[in-house]
Amino acid sequence: MADALQAVKGMNDVLPGEASLWQRFEDVARRVFAQYGYRNLRVPIVEPTALFVRGIGEHTDVVEKEMYSFEDRLNGERLTLRPEATAGIVRAAIEHNLCYERPQRVWTAGAMFRHERPQKGRYRQFHQFDVEALGFAGPDVDAEQIVLLARLWRELGLDRGITLHVNSIGDADERRAHRQALIDYFERHAEQLDDDAKRRLHANPLRILDSKNLAMQAVIAGAPRLLDRLGGASRAHFDGLQQLLADHGIAFAVNARLVRGLDYYNRTVFEWVTDRLGAQGTVAGGGRYDGLFEQLGGKPTPACGFAIGVERMVLLLQEAGTAAADAPAAYIVHAGEGTQRLAAIAGESLRDAGVDVVVNAGGGSFKSQMKKADASGARFALVIGEDEVAANTVGIKPLRESGDQTTVPLAALASTLAARTMGSEP
Ligand code: HAM
To answer: What angle do the packed helices 49-56 and 86-95 form, to 10 degrees?
Structure first.
């Protein structure tokens, strides 16, 4: 036998049992996005490397270490498997002049690629549902997206496990001024800095704030906070957002430490976090990126968006014991002369009536077919033997509740089953 090949590390198969939870999440998410007028848009998985370098930022972890980049063998073009969707969507919006007449609410979904160390909730191929509002200055649309997410968690039955953190990281000039203020502050307290922090002081003083060194926590706690130094417009934007969230009864924590891993953000940033998934607890994150269109060669266009990590949502759904919803309503077992034909006819008439049904294929005794019917999760086994063929009837046997097998004429099967399965899912 030839050696069996395996999937690439960090890139996972999703088998049917788990895929049904993916579909449940996807169905609910699509429905909620439509409720707010967000329309689907699809962009390629492969983009020019320069798009992400310019969009996400040269000095981010994603661009420095995590991108799957390669040279097109035929024309030498530098290409990258998208590590996220926002840069591609903005490229597409510029390329097709999407916001020319009016702003746009869009969403996309699909695989993203980052070469990270795989662990629970963190993979090299992962999936996002990504939502973007292009051409809106906010803060109303910032709030709209957060309210949308709160609704999504409710619809999924996950609203109790996920909390919202918001922050404002100001505009570019405010960040520059804050950076200088941090350098000044840490220079004044240089004797309290470790070697690592001293090295970072001028290159990236913000990273000092992430230090885990216990001896430095006091000096870090006293450092100037960008949130306290916002200019009037950024302050008003952030106050407006908080007011809107309060109006909607959305609980949130202002987290002055919240910065995001991608460089395009300004003003509003937010994350939804759970403590139920261990270290990878951020299930959705996003914010405003008013400068990205210009950075990518477009006209100034304010915008705001977020992405949800689908694998993390599925882990949460599993953890919450959410039942898979992909079982058929009925499974038709049939054995004997002429039964296969009646089974096929009964199956199609049920599908016409909107009942999901599996017709046993591959033969087998009644006993072995009943086992398959049970394993399918179906609520009813429909039994067809030679007697049923002679009388043009079908037996209905409940599999998930007590009750005897009953017999109905084929002509009444669809209406009987539709009545018994609709509106009363077990
Ligand atoms: P992000 O925070 O990098 O933002 O990713 C959003 C979400 O994707 C995370 O909160 C997490 O749930 C999931 N995620 C990220 N990396 C992985 C991974 N390696 N494995 C599994 N899940 C992961 C963005 O990507 C921005 N484009 C979001 C955005 C849209 N901002 C504005 N518009």
So the answer is: 110
Residue 318 CB coordination number (10 Å): 12
CB burial of residue 162 (10 Å; 0-12, 13-18, 19+): buried
Interval between CA 58 and ligand 1 midpoint (Å): 18
| pLDDT confidence of residue 424 | 47
Q: What is the DSSP string of 320-375?
A: TTPPP----SEEEEE-STTHHHHHHHHHHHHHHTT--EEE--S---HHHHHHHHHH
Q: Position of tokens 């040279």?
A: 71
Ligand 1 pocket member 82 (CB < 6 A): no
| pTM recorded for the entire structure | 0.90
Q: Measure CA 379 to chain center.
A: 31
Predicted confidence at residue 91, as pLDDT, reads 98
List beta partners, residue 71: 78
For the CA of 308, the closest atom of ligand 1 is 7
Residue of 312, 313, 315 to mutate, ligand 1, most atoms within 8 A of C-beta? 312
Give the integer Cα–Cα distance in Å for 200 and 195.
9
Q: Using DSSP, state whether 140 is helix, strand or coil.
A: helix
Note the pLDDT of residue 81. Answer: 98
The Cα–Cα gap between 186 and 170 comes to: 21
pLDDT at res. 137: 96
User: In the prediction, which pLDDT does 200 show?
Assistant: 81
Whole-number pLDDT of residue 422:
66
Question: Is the backbone peptide bond immediately before 300 cis, with ω within 30 degrees of 0?
Answer: no
Pocket test of ligand 1: the residue of 62, 84, 89 to mutate, having most ligand atoms within 8 Å of its CB, is: 84
What pLDDT score does 161 carry? Answer: 85
Question: Is there an atom of ligand 1 within 6 Å of 222 CB?
Answer: no
Q: Which residues of 75-198 form beta strands (DSSP E)?
A: 78-81, 104-113, 125-134, 163-168
243 C-alpha to ligand 1 centroid (Å): 26
Average pLDDT across each block of 10 residues of the chain; the chain has 426 residues. List them in order. Answer: 94 92 95 98 98 92 94 96 98 95 96 96 98 96 98 94 94 92 92 87 81 88 91 97 97 91 94 91 96 96 98 94 83 94 93 93 94 94 95 94 92 88 53
